[in-house]
Amino acid sequence: MLVTGATGRLGRLVVGRLLDAGVPVRALVRRREAAATLPPEAEVFTGDLTVPASIAPALTGAAAVLLVWTAPPGTAEAVVARLAGQVRRVVLLSSPHRTPHPFFQQPNPVAALHARLEGLLAAAVPETAIIRPGMLASNALLWWAPAIRSGGTVRWPYGAARSAPVDDRDVAAVAARVLGQEGHAGGDHVLTGPEPLTQAAQVAALGEVLGRPIAYEEMPPDEFRELSRGTAPAPVADMLLAAWRASLGHPAHVTTAVADLLGTPPRTFRQWAADHAAAFGPEPPPGG
């Protein structure tokens, strides 16, 4: 099995899940030194989706590919042509842009790219499946951990916006299952957690797990845009703001896909928080 984006949040977990199941894994990385974060059992190949010919060695003899697109869109056709010529099964990590819920219906470049990849794969690869995670529980680390570690107030826009965060480990387990089993061709799976929570409630849940209250304060959207400069492209910040705003007053979209595919219930956000509590702990003292 070949995993692209193997050192990313989800790719690394899929590599580990496959290896735990005794499945030989190839990991595609752009730089060899990035492989230091991967299990030593993974066979590492260097390659870049922006240079389609560079991925050919990793594809030779591969039974299936998890495609995590981490490049500009210009080489999409050429990469899919390479895949179609060398493997029968591709699982695409996409997004729920087809889901008729206000949260997922905000136009953005990522959704457009995913739709394009889906069409290309469906036309060229014999067995294609798509997994579409909603909001990842691990976003809490990117968004709120710095403020929580420092003991400060979490300031964030649209605290009343609801979602059902899905544990990254559940997404990886589904990807590994669909990648490694027959019978999933044509599958299209929107993955969510089991529990709808507002953003403010997610922060409160983190406080419960940590055993201390965490203050939440509403942040104006323009301040969020300003803070996002340099850490996220402007269209991504605008998409998030539009999605949160559009979802106000609507119930979160919740699916049973994780349980249906794995036979076990998905982890709750509180379970994820408990397992990652150390990442939200106090900042170590200087030099500590």
What does this protein look like?
With 288 residues, the chain is α/β, with parallel strands linked by helices. Helix content is 39%, strand content 14%. The chain contains twelve helices and eleven strands. The protein has helices at residues 9-20, 56-59, 76-86, 109-124, 139-143, 145-149, 168-180, 199-210, 221-228, 234-247, 257-262, 269-275, and strands at 2-3, 26-29, 43-46, 64-67, 89-93, 127-133, 154-156, 162-163, 188-191, 197-198, 216-218. A seven-stranded parallel beta sheet has the order 3-2-1-4-5-6-9, sandwiched between helices. Helix 4 links the parallel strand 5 and strand 6 (127-133). The radius of gyration is 19 Å and the shape is globular. It starts with a strand and ends in a 13-residue tail after the last helix. The mean pLDDT is 94.
Uncertain segments are: none
- Amino- and carboxy-terminal Cα gap: 41 Å
Enumerate how many helices there are, as a single number. Answer: 12
Helix fraction bin: 25-40%
Name the beta content range: 5-15%
The helix/strand class is alpha/beta
Task: Summarize model confidence as the mean pLDDT.
Answer: 94
Order of helices and strands: EHEEHEHEHEHHEEHEEHEHHHH
Shape: globular
Radius of gyration: 19 Å
Main sheet record? 7 strands, parallel
Secondary structure: number of strands: 11
Strand order of the largest sheet: 3-2-1-4-5-6-9
Protein name: NAD(P)H-binding protein
Pfam families: NAD_binding_10
Domain NAD(P)-binding: 5-180
Organism: Streptomyces rutgersensis
